[in-house]
Amino acid sequence: MLRTLLKQENDYSGEVLDVTEYKYILETIVNNPYEGIMVVNEKGFIIMMNQAYGEFLGRDPQKTIGKFVGDVIENTRMQIVLETGKAELLQVQRINNHDIVCNRVPIRKGNKLIGAFCQVLFRDVVEFKNLAKNMDQLKLELQYYKSEFDKRQGTKYTIDSIVGMNAKIIRLKELLLKAGRTNSTVLIQGESGTGKELFAHALHNASYRRMGPFIKVNCAALPETLLESELFGYDTGAFTGAKKGGSMGKFELAQGGTIFLDEIGDMPLGMQAKILRVLQEREIERLGSGNSIPVDVRIIAATNQNLEELVKKGEFRQDLFYRLNVVPLNIVPLRERREDIPLLVEYLLLKLANKPGFSKKQISPEALDILVNGHCWPGNVRELENILERALNFMGESSLLKPVHLPLEIFSKNMNRKHDFTQFVSLKNSLEEIEHMQLEKALIATEGNTIKAAKLLDISKSTLYEKIKKYGIILKDDLSKIG
Ligand SMILES: Nc1ncnc2c1ncn2[C@@H]1O[C@H](COP(=O)(O)OP(=O)(O)OP(=O)(O)O)[C@@H](O)[C@H]1O
């Protein structure tokens, strides 16, 4: 019948097994030395027992044939399986002082139950427990690597995270989307804190590689020898202390995804030659191995240095520069797109509000005016983010970010600034505004010490208290509560 089945159900064009071969295969399976197998008829009499089961019982299997199963095997439940007709899988059964793990399965011919078989999967539950333990361990390891992998991917930013309506930023976003459709190498240049990494994340997420890994390498952070093994991995014995079995490098980890070579301008010349080779050949060689491994990786490089200048000085390879600069993205410094500052402030205040300990705050027009017009932003968006975070720390319970909450150097530079929005403010109001600011500033500078603050402002302590009351300044021991 099995033979007919094979003939009917298989389109398999190879040779069909004949009955003798089939019998041989089945016998080999039944007699395999790793698994005890026993078969009973519908009445519970043993009709087959393999050598492995016999050895485990310490009996000659042939001599068990025809005996009632309950007389041969301790704690057997074969009769129950025959009664219920239900399989019992992965059951623990105590035999010869061992807790074995077995399957008990009924055998049917049509609707009729004609017997059952038992399969000993583990001769001791300890074996099984060890396996389960190993599996738990593997599950934990898998979870760990998964979370590490997700962390490495860490591409939480998309094109929508790039805030800005400046024409150059819009053009850059368009370029980014176009580059997302290709596999071309991208070189992102821009001052520190302009958002180069943000653009790299967004590009990865805008590309077909978004489901693949995003692997970042800081080329400035490691000495040449370490950088090489970090990038290309190594084989067993590549150097003293090399892990047995070797290790994958970042290029291999980035297979199918993107590798982000940050601070490429700081890469040593020797390494530059090796990166050039990867760009040309699209393959890498682990340290200490003669074998090439093909890599399917998109390369994004970034630097805050002027690479062309470095090329002129002989500190950066010209050929590598050309290879990297296929799609150039030059990020505009913040001082050249001041019109984006209000948008960025709004976005960053929201972003900060999600951090523990912070809540949503508004910014006063005066403070915003200072941020837009009163500072040159050498640290770009990162500096703006830091300044806002610092201000939130100073503000305490106050809901409005005022100039006084800005860092001293920015605040003092802008003390006399005529705010753009100030059209016709009564003299009384503007004087009060300045007085209020000065009071808060002095209290911040003296960490809430009223004697020192009064001295700084050249007024008496009682006048200081009067004014504190007038402007509703909350004095708390904690400086951060001054609002
Ligand atoms: N256009 C933008 N919109 C929103 N957030 C931005 C923008 N540009 C930068 N940021 C934020 O500013 C911070 C600094 O950005 P990022 O780390 O990408 O700068 P970078 O140019 O890579 O800096 P570095 O050269 O120092 O490595 C990040 O928190 C980033 O999210």
From TrEMBL:
Residues 162-393 form the Sigma-54 factor interaction domain. One of its GO terms (molecular function) is ATP binding. Gene3D superfamilies: 1.10.8.60, Homeodomain-like, P-loop containing nucleotide triphosphate hydrolases, PAS domain. InterPro entries: AAA+_ATPase, AAA_lid_NorR, Homeodomain-like_sf, HTH_Fis, P-loop_NTPase, PAS, PAS-like_dom_sf, PAS_fold. Keywords: ATP-binding, DNA-binding, Nucleotide-binding, Transcription, Transcription regulation. One of its GO terms (biological process) is regulation of DNA-templated transcription. SUPFAM superfamilies: Homeodomain-like, P-loop containing nucleoside triphosphate hydrolases, PYP-like sensor domain (PAS domain). It comes from the Bacteria. Residues 22-67 form the PAS domain. Signal peptide: none annotated. It holds the Pfam family Sigma54_activat. This is Sigma-54-dependent Fis family transcriptional regulator. It comes from Formimonas warabiya. The lineage of its organism: Bacteria, Bacillati, Bacillota, Clostridia, Eubacteriales.
